[in-house]
Amino acid sequence: MGLRIRPNVRRMVPYSPGKPVAEVQRELGLDSVVKLASNENPLGPSPKAVEAVRRAAACLHVYPDGSAYELRQALSRKFGVPPSQILLGNGSDELIHLLGLVFLGAADDEMVVGDPSFVRYDAAAHLADCRLVKVPLDGDLVHDLKAMARAITPGTKMVFVANPNNPTGTIVRKPEVDAFLRDLPDGVVLVLDEAYYEFAADVPDFPSSLEYVRAGKPVVGLRTFSKAYGLAGIRIGYGFAPEEVVDAVDRAREPFDVNSLAQAAAVAALEDDEHVARTVANNRAGAERIAEALREAGARVYPTWANFVYADLGRPAQPVFDALLRKGVIVRTAASMGSATGLRVSVGTPDEVERFVRAFREVASAW
Q: Is the CB of residue 45 less than 8 Å from the CB of residue 230?
């Protein structure tokens, strides 16, 4: 039709989610399928959040509170930060998108990211049609902050560090981030994407973005209710940032971008520390079990501080993915992240983890 869609948009690759359970059941004629591909909370949401959604559902005819006052206040109380330094979005994905909109706008603008890391950073750069600088992770699949610092130029506007990193589950430590910030040029913002924060929070030298924001550093911290809080289905993310960043994002975002059900569920979820503790405990045990099975097959398993396990199988991962799929277990290859031999397995319930272990051992026995 000759429509003048921007060339950079045509070059973008749509996000590829994990295969849905229902699709696999239809395609393979399976009655029972477990999904260990999307880093969801296998324990589900807090019962308090579910009840809050039930109550809020009676008012679906009313627009949400555009300022999300109650949620901002709840986050302020929980984390000891002023509401004026709190970001909210339709998932932390939207916050990544909005940060791209407010910081990037010229062809010579640059964004620096680790490689591999979360693919939505790439999307923000491509949509802005700016320069994306990808710095390989080190040999242990950890962000190489020294190399990332060397990659910064006068055109750099943002640096993204997923901590813990997706897809590898690895973390950078506080001394490394402190050193990185000391040498960060004026005008550059460091975005610490802490979507898996709750799974790493007990690490003694884990660098919380909140501390940097409180100290007035040029840092934006992103977190989410999708993982440990189990609210992935209603999409709500939050974060901490300098007031001028929060103001800019609020100017750029859509009206009512955080829906009423999400706001109500998030406020209730923040009050259920026991549910988060159970989630973290289940994750720790499940990750160890998954890692053990992968190591038995000779895979290199990387330490994880997230709710998934990443391994280099030392062989093409796609046939392994296909074989597991036929056994009713959905996992994720790292092909879209640049690795033909990488496999990522989300932690499920104890029963789901055991099903993966049995299926994987059957697949590996044929190697």
A: yes
Can the peptide bond before residue 164 be classed as cis, meaning omega within 30 degrees of 0? yes
In a 13 Å sphere around the CA of 306, the CA atoms on its Cβ side amount to: 28
Concatenating the DSSP letter of every residue in 99-167 gives HHHHH--STT-EEEEEES--HHHHHHHHHHT-EEEEEE--TTS---HHHHHHT--TTEEEEEEESS-TT
Residue linked to tokens 């994002």: 249
pLDDT confidence bin for 85, thresholds 50/70/90: very high
What is the rounded end-to-end Cα distance, in angstroms, of the chain?
A: 50
Residue 113 has pLDDT above 90, yes or no: yes
CA 162 to CA 170: how far, in whole Å? 9
* pLDDT digit string, tens, across residues 253-277: 999 999 999 999 999 999 999 999 9
At residue 197's C-alpha, the angle toward residues 105 and 253, to 5°, is 30
Element containing residue 306 per DSSP (H, E): none
Does the pTM surpass 0.90? The reply is yes
Alpha carbon of 199 to those of 71, 187, 280, 304: distances in Å? 22, 31, 6, 9
The two beta strands, 342-346 and 237-240, are: unpaired
Which residues pair with residue 134 across a beta bridge?
Answer: 113
Pairing of β 156-162 and β 131-136:
unpaired
Domains and CATH numbers, the chain: 7-44+274-364 (3.90.1150.10), 47-269 (3.40.640.10)
What pLDDT does 9 receive?
87
What confidence score (pLDDT) does residue 12 get? 83
**More confident call, 81 vs 1:** 81
283 with 347: CB under 8 angstroms? yes
pLDDT at position 337 over 80: no
Q: What pLDDT, on the 0 to 100 scale, is given for residue 15? A: 80
